[in-house]
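User: Round two. Same drill as before: sequence, then structure, for each protein.

Assistant: Same drill it is. First protein:
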Amino acid sequence: MPAGHKLFSRNPLRRTSDRIQAWSAFLIIMTLMLVSPWAGWYVARGTYRDEVRTAEWQRLHRFQVPAVLLEDPYTPAGGANAQGAPVLPMTARASWSGPGGAVRTGTIVADHDMRAGSKQMIWVDERGAVASRPMQNNPVFDALLSAVLVAFVLIGGLAGLHRIVVWRLNRRRMLQWQAEWLVIEPLWRHR
């Protein structure tokens, strides 16, 4: 039997609540089919554009330069476990030349096997201050992932909405059935 048959059925035994439930399911499915692709495309496009823009900005404002350690790396106070192994990253004072050629000195995160005088590559911003490494994201993957997440959120939201409608309709049906049973049951008792 075609799916539309239930929706437009003129069966005299169908209750209004059955029709409301059928229309609710139909409208939710149609909304999902019409809105989900558009919302997924919109979010994916925005995610892709933002990540490409961020990667380009970081490419122009983050630079990798060699830093020379001025001391051996050490674990900050409270940064070791009971066996003495570092839990926090080891740091050391170091000097480096920024993009403009100015020599800077500061504390950097250093590998535990390095010693004073060793060179380590660090990331700096356009002023020469230590900065985080640029993002290593894949804009296409992240855009697809965000589109899929939007689709799942829409599916979950609309399915939840449908469950609420069905729950309310079932509650109403049970109340109607109970009221009708209160009228019919005394007649059956006297047989």
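Second protein:
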Amino acid sequence: MNNSEYQTSKSPMWDWPAWVKGSVPNPLDVFAAPQNLVQPILPGWVLGGVVNVTNQNSSAPDTERQIVAKESYGRQLGRIMDALVVLIAEQEKGRKVKAFDRLMKLDREINAIKRRAATTRLDHVITDLATLKENDRKEYDRVAAAFRKVLKEGS
């Protein structure tokens, strides 16, 4: 191919008259990409459990970030719940306190969620183990032996 076979881009067959250009916006610009493509996506939403710790909501955001990196908020709240459940059980003898009842109900609901999540994870492990048995018998034997050891120790 020589250079004469390539066509250069030409302006459209129809164009605005010179006296209109610059004074009237081109109605076809609604189909053109904007010059500035900055747009917040889901402003104010929190996705994936992300918590923004700033000087606005913490007196020591750097310290708080280090703590959360080591011990998540969920783990911290779980330990507080565990301690409160014990204290409530001791204090509640013969008394009915609505706040205690709600906290104990919350604890039961959280524990039920944890049990269901553990069951789901174990169901996935069983499925994976069956797949491993079909596809890699040597690796299956190794993993199954490790499971048997753990299960035997738990008896």
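The chain has four helices and no strands.

User: Perfect.
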